[in-house]
Amino acid sequence: MRFLVTNDDGIASVFMHELVHALKAAGHEPYVVAPKTEQSWIGAAKSRNRPVHATAADRGLGCPTWIVDGTPSDAVNIGVGHLLPRDLHLDGVLSGINIGLNASLGFIIASGTIGGAWEGALHGLPAVAFSQDLTSELYDELKAAGDIPKPDLHTILRVSAAHAAQLAPKLVAATLPHSFIVHNVNFPLPCHPQSEVRRTVPARVVVPGLFSPAADDGTHRLIFRLGDDYSPPEPLTDRTALAQGFISHTVLDYKKLGH
């Protein structure tokens, strides 16, 4: 299959690179169109008030690659409309693998990873978002190391990427064009070759108080927290599935909004 691959962590993200390598190893044909810099928590935003540059680049991925100095949605929109060959049959859009989870209502709506996949759905294409759960300690350690994972985490990441390369064609093939569906897949920590997939719903998490009190200069700074879960015991939520060591698969069907 031919996939446009994007993310919200930027073109340099090893997490996306491992997804691309796994797709190629599984015999698929990725085309990478990714943001120049990290665009986390930007949702489905598009760059309305400034020009956006797209540049072909060789990042050693062994596939056509472009860097866009905008959002994940910009990257997918410009990629589909102007960068990929006109006669290319694109099977779907894949976004990720994100650094950290994108599970629960409190995170799904804000996710740039899911925003990139949603842009694919807006083009009538099947779309899948992939995210890797991390502890806060591992996340901080990763950022301190310039987003280069240590060997143990890198091994887990490769396992998750292999799962993604197996899941992506199945989910894409099962999704009709113009379905307005995003498949949201989250990998547990650790993820094992034998880790099982569970269908889930988004956890009902509220995330208040994300910003610090005003500093002396009047500014507020984001303080990450996972929020407070108010989900009922059933059905199985994405957060609970991850905590139990399962791969969480949530079908985000935007046609059901308002029902």
Quick gist of this model?
The protein is built from seven helices and eleven strands. It has helices at 14-25, 72-83, 105-108, 112-122, 136-144, 151-173, 238-243, and strands at residues 2-6, 29-35, 54-56, 65-68, 92-99, 127-132, 181-187, 197-200, 205-206, 228-229, 247-253.
Topology summary:
Blueprint (H helix, E strand, L loop, with lengths): L1 E5 L7 H12 L3 E7 L18 E3 L8 E4 L3 H12 L8 E8 L5 H4 L3 H11 L4 E6 L3 H9 L6 H23 L7 E7 L9 E4 L4 E2 L21 E2 L8 H6 L3 E7 L6
Parallel strand pairs: 1-2, 1-5, 2-4, 5-6, 6-7, 8-11
Antiparallel strand pairs: 3-4, 7-11, 9-10
Helix pairs in contact: 1-6, 2-4
Can you walk me through this structure?
The structure is a single chain. The protein has 259 residues and is an alpha/beta fold. The chain has one domain (2-201, 233-256): Survival protein SurE-like phosphatase/nucleotidase (Stationary-phase Survival Protein Sure Homolog, Chain: A, 3-Layer(aba) Sandwich), CATH 3.40.1210. Helices cover 30% and strands 21% of the residues. It has helices at 14-25, 72-83, 105-108, 112-122, 136-144, 151-173, 238-243; strands at 2-6, 29-35, 54-56, 65-68, 92-99, 127-132, 181-187, 197-200, 205-206, 228-229, 247-253. The strands form two sheets. A nine-stranded mixed β-sheet has the order 3-4-2-1-5-6-7-11-8, with helices on both faces. The protein has a two-stranded antiparallel ribbon with strand order 9-10. The longest helix is centred in the middle third of the chain and has 23 residues, at 151-173. The model has no long low-confidence stretch (mean pLDDT 97).
